[in-house]
Write a structure and sequence with these properties.
- By secondary structure, this protein is an alpha/beta fold.
- It has a single domain, classed as HUPs (Rossmann fold, 3-Layer(aba) Sandwich), CATH 3.40.50.620.
- The chain has 9 helices and 7 strands; from the N terminus they run βαβαβαβααβαβαβαα.
- A 7-stranded parallel β-sheet has the order 3-2-1-4-5-7-6, sandwiched between helices.
Length: about 220
């Protein structure tokens, strides 16, 4: 059975932290493919106007062009109705019946998971990988006992045997990525005319941002 991880988000802009997650999880979970799914407009960020989905998609393509195992999907950008995660995961299940699907989220999304539409169903539609942030605590009291029973803590070392043996709908907690980069901080530094932000994105993404003055 193929293993594919899907990572949804704004990616505004995609940065080296996002790419480090793709690299690390492909290795840790023996993935066949890692797919970024940029949101047209994240449903939980309706008050914040995102950068054009076309620019965010273009930057993801530029950043991942040399990575054979990484793809970028337009499934949410092209959807006639702006889907919630529960709808995206159901679509993936319908399309990829013979694939083990992993849905990737950051620790901030995990902290807010109970605010997502049909959040308990979301956690039953695939395996999930929660990527912690360096130096930050992660909690589990906000979810139900049933959800907590499906949590497999992989922090502190790789345990591929547990990944293989775990049943479906497992929730893996991993600290394998030790990169602390924020898209919000990158946008702020661009607007402040600082130059350090270029170190946190690929050269191709930096050129795209500068050429089209995306965050100016």
């Amino acid at each position: 059975m193929k293993r594919i991880a899907f990572y949804g988000g704004s990616f505004d802009p995609v940065h080296r932290g996002h790419l480090a997650i793709a690299d690390a999880l492909v290795d840790q979970f023996s993935l066949d493919e890692f797919v970024f799914i940029p949101a047209f407009h994240a449903p939980h960020k309706l008050r914040k106007r995102p950068t054009s989905s076309h620019d965010r998609f273009a930057m993801l393509c530029l950043a991942t062009n040399e990575k054979d195992f990484v793809a970028v999907s337009k499934m949410e950008i092209d959807a006639p109705d702006r889907p919630f995660t529960v709808e995206t995961l159901q679509t993936l299940n319908d399309r990829l019946a013979d694939t083990r699907i992993f849905f990737v989220m950051g620790a901030d999304s995990w902290a807010d998971i109970t605010t997502w539409r049909e959040w308990e169903r979301v956690l039953l539609l695939s395996d999930h990988i929660v990527v912690t942030r360096p130096g930050s605590e992660i909690g589990f009291d906000h979810v139900t006992d049933d959800v907590r029973r499906r949590i497999i803590d992989l922090r502190g070392g790789l345990r591929p045997a547990e990944i293989t043996a775990a049943g479906t709908n497992a929730i893996f907690i991993t600290d394998t990525v030790n990169v602390d980069v924020s898209a919000t901080d990158i946008r702020s530094r661009i607007r402040a005319n600082e130059v350090s932000w270029r170190d946190d994105v690929t050269i191709e993404v930096a050129k795209h941002i500068e050429k089209y003055q995306i965050y100016s």
